[in-house]
Please model this.
Amino acid sequence: MSAAGPSHGDNAGKAFLEVREVRKHYGAIKAVDGVSFKVGPGEIVGVIGPNGSGKTTLFNSILGQIRPTSGSVEFCGEDITAMSPLELSRRGVGRTFQTLQVFGQLPVRDNLIVAAQEFQGSLPGRLFAAPDAGLGERADRMIELFRLKHVAQLPAGRLSYGQQKLIDIAMAFMPNPRLVLLDEPCAGVNPSLVDQLRELLVELNRSQGGSFVVIEHNMDFIMKLCPHVICMVEGKVLSEGKPADVQANPAVLEAYLGN
Amino acid sequence: MNELIQLIVSGTATGAIYALAALGFTLLWQASGTINFAQGDFVMLPAFTMLFCMIAGAPLWLAFLATCVAAMLVLGVGFKKVIVDPLIRHGVIPLVIATLGVSMALKTIVRAGYSAEAHQFPAIFPAGQFTIAGVNVSWADLGTLVLAAVIVIALQTFVTRTLTGRAMQAVAQNTDAARVLGIDAKRMVLYTFLINAILAVVTALLITPTYLAKFDMGDSIGLKAFFAAIIGGFNQTRGALLGGVLIGVLENLVGFYWSPAYKEGVALMLFLVVILWRPEGLLGKVEERKV
Amino acid sequence: MNARVHLLALAAALAALAIVALYLKRSEVYLLTLWAVYVMATMGLNLTAGYAGQMSLGQAAFFGIGAYLAAILLKLGWPFLAVLPVAALVCFVVGLALGFPALRVQHHYLAFATLGFNVLVYLAMRNEEQITGGTFGISGIPRPTFLGIDLGGHVAYWYWTLGSLVVLGGILWWLLRSPWGRAFAALRDNPIRAESLGVNITAYTLLAFAIGAAFAGVGGVYYASLVEFIEPGPFHFSTSLMMLLAVIVGGSGKFYGPALGTAIVILLPEFLRGSSTPWLKFMQVWYLAVFGIAVVALMIWLPGGLLSIRERLDRKGGPQ
Model:
């Protein structure tokens, strides 16, 4: 579907994030090959697709981790194509990573504080700020929400995979981002906690009002969480729409079964 | 004018020696992510080994061959198995620190166990010089250049023309992909360490006649090998050659026209200029950020 | 360890260090002071390398810049307390200027840039004779007076240095507890994640490096006044390597790591030198070889340094 096509939901015309014809080619390999989609304010969009369909490369192209070969990304009316992760974070764009990315030697609570402190005051000002940069309470609320209280003072690197995953997600939400891109939030999380994680995300979406884009393999999770789903295959958008419609699309079924 | 050309020629010869040391350094980096701070001492040790062999009565060629074997065992296999393999999974910094420890230990072993003095080392090329188009060129410089060129060409041929060489390249570029293709990556990395060891012995053979064999002779050559590698482009083998020659020539020019006292600082200045202007090195390719 | 026990232990250790000086020989007090002076520099390096994870191999150059500045300015009659901020500031600014090109691209380039910088500074010290006195160095560097008290005596200067070390340690402690300290740790643990959370990794890396350099500059001032005669030798890059190894061996990213590591690197060889026991005499010559091998062994079995041994044991026995 191209950018000119009909947009979805109630947010037609006032897209928040707009991805236009993004391509990322590595020589002859077209990892992402002309992907366009829109995300409205407060919307949750799911991105599914078989392994190697270019989902993470798409994320990295949107987030400035790699420079797209062509195409553009617009956020709140501003061109953010190939902007550095630092500049993006200042505009309220956050992310989580597919692989574990916590600050291993820092205690959990400090992981959360450091995730938001850089948005408080100026760089020299932060040297003289309170040690918790005024974020202690906020961090404690987040710890409460993610049920990490019993490990709050332990170095993050010593926790279980699932707990680190939760910290990673909690960190992304600490600075109150306007847009969060979540790369496989369920991967490695205990199946019994997946529902809890989904409820957490819904709660954060409700309380913080940010938009999410979620890459996920767990169909059940994405079908329940996302009102709008994009299916990618071989670097292209194969199907897009309501979860049930995408799931019912024969081409999508074939793409999954064919792999 | 002739003076300038002479300086450039002899600088190129010195630079070719730096380039050989830098080449080993780059190969190790590409194949295994090892930054070897003992690279200079890997040149010093063979210099003394050859010296011992000759004191024991061996002719130079035999000393050289024996040292090559010893270096492959100790600086190649030994270094890899004892130090690099157990440490590489901890990341770059512990390995760098360990190589600093190795460097310190090697220097002290030679100084305390043998001598703190500088020792003469026989030249492999005849003394004297010849004149061509008004420019005086020493036989040693010419010989060094030819030998360095032969080694580089041989190495390049091995890497690009032989099956093993191409497998080594594949491992250096993408270890996982190479493994999928059925290449014995571990073996290829080991070959790189062996080549590095031999390059070190050759470097020692070429540089010791002028620099003399001394326990700390590796400090200066190691430093120049790093800078040559970065200036040329860390991920490019040809870069190491260019970087080495540039440093050699500029050192000669600075030493002659400005002040010999600052010769040793040339490599750093060149490094700073190059990374400001071309961060990936003169011949280097831009690497995408890894996530 | 809770805060009160910690403070009590620290006070006890400092009191012991202060009292023991009254019973030591002059040369031993001198050594102790030398240790404190080097700790100032390694403490700064611990910030750069241990807390912020940046390899700096030029700490001795900043130490030397501080020492030469002090030698020149003190001989011109400047008060000691005026020299300190100048040395700190100069080293801070030079650190920024050196770090900027190196860090703009590749974070491991800092190691090479600092190593080369050290070589260059050493050459300048040897060759710029009008300023540095060349290989003859600068002699007759005065010791300070403080509030009318003459600090020329060896015990008085030891107290002065120890007190200053405590103040510097306090500054570092405060810095590490501030949001900056947390940002430094984040940058060390995971720079990519840090950047995506708004941490300006280039700015923080530069700051960690330049602040570490400033600590070395301050240490250099105390050094110049302690030894009263300086020449280029002690500022060779091999000293930088020893300083880095002191930090790593003691425990990088551990507050007291540099104090322990510096004792091993600075005090132990001096102790060996004074000994006449046969096997210790052997160690006089072979010390660095043993130390080098010990460093390799430490990196293999205890990469966090000696002070990380407790965590290591915890982890082995712990549930994780």
About this structure: Residues 9-18+25-235 of chain C form one domain. The radius of gyration of chain C is 20 Å. Chain C touches chain A through 27 residues (CB under 8 Å). The mean pLDDT of chain C is 87.
